[in-house]
Specification:
The structure is a homodimer. Chain A is an alpha+beta fold. The first copy, chain A, is built from 8 helices and 27 strands.
Chain lengths: 407, 407
C-alpha cells in the first residue's frame, strides 16, 4: 500500500502530537528560570511584578503637564526646567505645574507629569543644565499620555506572563525574568526510545551509527532519548518493546521494515490494530511503518524507519524533526529555497528523490555523493537536501531544484 | 550616520566571522564522538574503517556471476540456489559459478559474485528455500557491479571523513561512528561576554532580563557565555572591558548607545579606531554600535545593542543569530514567509518596522502587543516577527506582510 510523502508527514505528525498530549498529562517538573530552560510551560506563569514597574519615558525629552502646553499651538510655550531624571532614578520628586523635567528613555516619569515631549521637538533641542534652572520652548500641544509607558502595560502583578503550552525559549526566559518569575512548571520532555534492529549491529560487524545519529538529533531538540540494539528475532524485539513501553512516550525503530525475509519489525508489528506498513513515494526512505505497542497497561506509538543510514536521516528530516521539535517547544524548521543545478541528475518516476547537495559560492547547487542510501559519510559532508519531484525523471545542469538546508 | 538593515547585517556578520576565525587558531579541544557533540571540526577526522566494510547488496535479490546471465537476453537462464545470505553474516562461502545466492539488502556479497538481481526481476519472484537447493529464473542479462555497494565506496581507511570546519551535527556523529572515529579535534566554542549597562539594573530596580535572554540564546546555539552588569560609569565599564578582553572572543553590550546624556557605552567606545555608532533604519533596534576593545595585548570586537528588551531581542534576531550560529556549526535560520494581516498597522517612514505577531489557524497574521520596544512579555507571547518595509507607512487588514518564525 503506497502513500505520498505529504500523507505520511501528516500521519507521523499526528502520532507525535498525540504522544506529546498524553505526556503533558504527567506531573510537571518544577524548573528554575535560567538560561538553558527548555520545553513547554505546563501551568500559567504568574507575574509577581507590574511590568514596567513604574510609568516611564519612551523618549529622551521633557516630562510635562500636557495641560501646560494646550495653548502652544498659537504661540510657543516656554517652561523652566528642573533637575534631569535619569534611568536608575527610582523616586523623582513631584513635578510642579508650569515646569518641565528633562528625562531619559526608561527613566520614571515624575509624579504629576502626564506626557513626554521628545527633545528634538523642543528648542534649543538639548537638555540644558543637568541640575535644572534652564528654559525649554515647546512649539505645539501634546496629548496626555504621549510617550509615557504606563506601569503594568506589558503585564500586571497576578496576571499570566505565559500560558500553558508556551515554548520556553530565550525570549520567554527574558519575559519571565522581567516579571520576577523564578520557577515555572514545565511539561516533562517526551521520552524517545530508539531501537536499531540487525544482527550485524549486535555482532559489531557494522557500527550502529543510526542510533547515534538519532540520539544526537533528539539531544539537539532537547528530548530525553535512550538507544537499544536488538537481534533480528521477533521474541527479542517483543521483550524489548514490553520493557520500553513502560517509561517511554515514542518508540523509533530502524531497519526490519522492507521486503526481505528477516524483517523483524514488520513481522512483530504488521497486522496489529492501527498498524500500517508500506511504501512512501520517496527515495531513499521508501519502506516505512507506523504502529502502536501495548503491554496491556500502557500504549505508545512506534514509528518504524528503514535501516540504511541515509534513509534514516532523510526520514528523520521529512517526518520526525518538525513534530518532535514542536513537542519540545523548539523552532527547528529547515531553511529552504530553490536554485539551479551545476550538473544533471536522474530520478525514479513516481517517487520524490532526495539527494545530498552543497550550495556553491555562486548560489548554484552541486550534488554530494551518489543517490545510494548507504552513503552516510557523503550525507554528513552535504549542507543541503535536494528534492526532485515525483513526476521528474531527469534534470539538466541549469535546471531549478528545491533545497532544504541541513548544515 | 545612518545605515540600512542589510548593511549592518553584513558588518556584524563580518565582525563575528573574524572573531570565529581568530578563535579557530586556539588549541583545539579533544572531544569524544557522542550525541551532544557540537561545534566545528578543527582537524580532519580520519576514518579507521572502510565504509561499507565489505561489498554488500543494495537490494533484496540474488547474487550471481554476471557472466552467467550474458545469454539471458534470448532465453531465460535458470540457476540453482545456495543458502540465503542475510545481513549479519560476515563471511559467506565463495559462490560457485553457475549458482545464485539469495541475498538480503546490506548482506555481504559472496566472494566470486559480482552482481545482484532484484527478486522482483526473477521467477518465481521469491527467495525459495532458505537452505538453498531451489531454482531461480533470470529473464535478462546484468552488468557486472549492478546493485553491489563496493567496500570503501563511502570512505576508505585513512581518508578524511570530514574536513576542518565541518559542523558536528547529528549526521556528522552518525558518519564518524560508521567510520570508527571515536574522538575528534573540535574548534573551542566562541566565548561571548554579555554586558548590560544601567544603574537601574545594578540597583535591582529593574530585573536584568536582557542578559538572561541573551545567555539563553547563546546557550541554545552551544556557545560559552558569561553575563555582567555595570553602572552608567565610564571608568567602571572600561575596567570591566579590560577584564573581559583577556578570555572572551566577542563582547555584546546592551544599553548606553542612544542620544541621552548618560550613554556610557557610546562615551567609552565612540571615536576609538574602527568604532561606528549610529542609527540603523529599523524600529525597534535603531541605535546600534560596533567597536573594538584592546587591553594592549588582545583585541576583541564589541557589538553594542540598544537597551530596551524588545530592541535587544530584535537586534539579536536580525544581526547576531545567524553569524553566531554559523560559528557554532548550527543551522539557526528562521523560517520565513508571507501572509495577510488580520488588522491594520502603521509604520514610520524610512525604517523597517519589526512587529510581533502570531500565525492564526487560517494562515493570516495577527499582531501581538503594540510597537513599543519595552513590551518584553508581548514578545515572548508572539510566534512571529512581522516586517514592514522602509517605504511603507500603513498596511490594511488583508495586506500582505513578510514574517519570520521565532517560536
Amino acid at each position: 500500500m503506497g502513500r505520498s510523502v505529504d500523507e505520511h508527514v501528516h500521519q507521523v505528525a499526528a502520532v507525535i502530537r498525540g504522544a506529546a498530549q498524553r505526556r503533558a498529562q504527567d506531573p510537571p517538573l518544577e524548573c528554575r528560570v535560567v538560561p538553558g530552560l527548555t520545553g513547554r510551560l505546563a501551568a500559567p506563569a504568574v507575574s509577581t511584578l507590574d511590568v514596567p514597574g513604574f510609568d516611564n519615558s519612551q523618549m529622551d525629552g521633557f516630562a510635562v503637564y500636557a495641560a501646560d502646553l494646550d495653548r502652544a499651538g498659537d504661540l510657543p510655550v516656554t517652561l523652566p526646567t528642573v533637575a534631569h531624571v535619569v534611568a536608575g532614578d527610582t523616586a523623582p520628586p513631584r513635578l510642579d505645574p508650569g515646569t518641565a523635567a528633562p528625562i531619559m528613555t526608561g527613566a520614571p516619569v515624575p509624579p504629576g507629569a502626564d506626557a513626554v515631549v521628545p527633545v528634538e521637538r523642543t528648542r534649543p533641542g538639548d537638555f540644558g543644565p543637568v541640575a535644572g534652572g534652564g528654559l525649554v520652548e515647546f512649539s505645539g500641544p501634546v496629548a496626555s499620555g504621549t510617550f509615557v509607558r504606563p506601569r503594568g502595560a506589558d503585564v500586571r502583578t497576578g496576571e499570566a506572563v505565559l500560558e500553558p503550552g508556551a515554548p520556553l525559549h530565550a525570549a520567554a526566559v527574558g519575559a519571565l525574568t522581567v516579571a520576577g518569575v523564578t520557577t515555572v512548571e514545565v511539561v516533562p520532555p517526551l521520552r524517545v526510545a530508539i531501537v536499531a534492529t540487525g544482527a550485524e549491529l549486535v555482532s559489531g560487524a557494522v557500527p550502529d551509527s543510526n542510533s547515534r545519529a538519532l540520539l544526537a538529533h533528539a539531544h539537539e531538540l532537547g528530548l530525553a532519548a535512550t538507544a537499544h540494539v536488538v537481534e533480528d528475532d521477533p521474541a527479542a524485539l517483543e521483550d524489548l518493546l514490553n520493557r520500553l513501553v513502560t517509561d517511554h512516550d515514542v518508540i523509533l525503530t530502524t531497519g526490519g521494515v522492507s521486503a526481505g525475509t528477516r524483517e523483524v519489525v514488520r513481522q512483530v508489528l504488521e497486522g496489529r490494530p492501527g498498524a500500517w506498513f508500506g511504501h512512501v513515494a520517496v527515495q531513499p526512505g521508501g519502506p516505512q511503518g507506523l504502529a502502536r505497542w501495548s503491554d496491556g497497561a500502557r500504549e505508545v506509538p512506534v514509528v518504524c524507519l528503514p535501516g540504511n543510514p541515509v534513509s534514516v536521516l532523510v526520514s528523520f528530516e521529512l517526518f520526525l524533526r518538525s513534530p518532535l521539535a514542536q513537542a519540545a517547544g523548539r523552532v527547528a524548521w529547515r531553511p529552504s529555497g530553490t536554485a539551479v543545478l551545476t550538473e544533471p541528475l536522474t530520478s525514479p518516476a513516481g517517487r520524490v528523490q532526495v539527494r545530498r547537495g552543497r550550495m556553491e559560492p555562486d548560489g548554484r547547487v552541486s550534488l554530494v555523493g551518489e543517490a545510494g542510501s548507504h552513503l552516510a559519510v557523503s550525507y554528513a559532508r552535504a549542507d543541503l537536501l535536494v528534492f526532485v519531484p515525483e513526476s521528474v525523471t531527469a534534470r539538466e545542469a541549469g535546471d531549478t531544484v528545491e533545497w532544504w538546508r541541513i548544515a
